[in-house]
Amino acid sequence: MIQLSFPLTVKVDIQNHLIDTFDIAKLSFQSYAEIESLLARKHSADLESTWVEGTPKYYLLLDDVMVIVGYYGKNSFEVVAFKEINRLEDLPNSHSRFTNQKGIYVSDVELTTFNVSTIKLELQAEFACVLQANDYEVLALCEANESSEMVSILNPKDQNCTKLGYEWDEFCKSNHFKGGEAIRFRLDVTDENKTCHMYKVSYAQLKFLLVNEELYP
Fold first, then answer.
1. Residues 85, 114 within the same domain
2. For residue 123, which of 96, 95, 143, 153 has the smallest C-alpha distance?
3. How far is the C-alpha of 56 from the C-alpha of 215, rounded, in Å?
4. What is the CATH number of the domain that holds 162?
5. Is the pTM of this model over 0.85?
6. What is the mean pLDDT of residues 194-200?
7. What UniProt keywords apply to this chain's record, in alphabetical order (predicted)?
8. Residue 31: which residues within 8 A CB-CB, separation 6 or more?
């Protein structure tokens, strides 16, 4: 068994029994791998503070690979299996790019010099309908670094003028959003915390996704 402590050191420990498993996955266009954060919430009393306070990022994983890790308590972990990611469907459900699941909705927004400088962002009608149908009044926008911020939904009962606000412009500044970029909202309506993942999707990446339909349908 290997013991992983943040940022990433390895020690031998064979004293404990398997308690849980979790996934770590990295796509080729991501600068770091995503680790399933449910582990920190379920076992916070038995994990080091670095795991509880924020989800660690693993920078050294190979591209398009998922690692299944066993947790043995007392910050002891063992790599159980590796899996190559050939399609988005191969991703674990917890990954921010996984969308092929009932209850998950995505909305891509083209950023302009206007909508990154306004205090309110107008949402697409289809996405607004999902928010309305599920009685959303706020969203916990979860950024690529896994930090989140509660944002109000304005006019939630009218999908033709539903907006995010206020201080959307300040939110764009803090996340370095610029006109000419695109962002994706990924909402899981089964999440009780009303978390909505949000990340940049470059036009080059969008073209890559379209060209590699087998890998990223």
1. no
2. 153
3. 26
4. 2.40.330.10
5. no
6. 83
7. DNA-binding, Nucleus, Transcription, Transcription regulation
8. 59
